[in-house]
Design goal:
Length: 165
């Protein structure tokens, strides 16, 4: 992983991320087959078009950022972070950082790159004076949940989905 470089960017980096989005989209199919009957996964190009539009919107905030990990000039992972207002019922900071997407290509997993991306995110958040952060994972993504628990995170909301009878 020493040959992997992590750089901070904004909207100008979005086009580079589409193949990595495809990796995450395939991962959704792999970890959540039980959701498919209720909510089939969108094609990677369709979900990318939707996410890209949100990424554009979030990255209009100059404090929001994407950290891109590159090896030999090729992107091999990214972490994209934006902010939302502090919680009403809980005493949080005025802004909470949301790790919207974290992905590392399969070849580069389990070598500490995911952790390095999160640590680079911490550096940015400390610089911005943001204390609180959150991330959501699909309930059946056990590997990612273990990764987040190891980072010391506490489970927060449980959300349910279903059909209107
Ligand atoms: C989650 C992820 C970003 C972690 O990056 P990483 O570089 O593999 O992480 P690190 O090497 O720093 O840490 C390894 C740990 O990550 C976790 N992990 C999560 N998903 C994993 C995967 N598909 N393969 C291997 N390890 C994974 C495990 O807890 C692993 O620990 P272990 O080796 O004891 O099982 C990366 O594995 C990934 O992109 N997974 C698929 C997409 C995903 O689930 N993203 C999170 C969505 S909320």
């Amino acid at each position: 992983v020493d040959e992997v470089e992590i750089t901070r960017g904004g909207r100008e980096r979005l086009d580079e991320l589409e193949p990595l989005w495809g990796v995450l989209s395939a991962h959704h199919v792999a970890v959540a087959p039980q959701l498919a009957e209720l909510w089939p996964v969108r094609s990677s190009s369709e979900s990318w078009a939707r996410w890209r539009a949100f990424y554009e919107e979030w990255l209009a905030d100059p404090d929001a950022f994407v950290l891109v990990a590159s090896a030999g000039g090729e992107p091999v992972g990214y972490a994209l972070v934006d902010f939302h207002a502090g919680e009403e019922s809980w005493s949080t900071g005025e802004r909470i950082a949301e790790l919207q997407t974290l992905v590392v290509t399969a070849e580069w997993r389990s070598r500490g790159l995911g952790r390095r991306l999160v640590e680079a995110m911490f550096d940015e958040l400390r610089r911005l004076g943001v204390r609180d952060w959150s991330v959501a994972a699909i309930a059946s993504n056990a590997d990612a949940i273990r990764f987040y628990e190891r980072l010391g995170l506490t489970p927060y909301l449980v959300s349910f989905i279903g059909r209107v009878p």
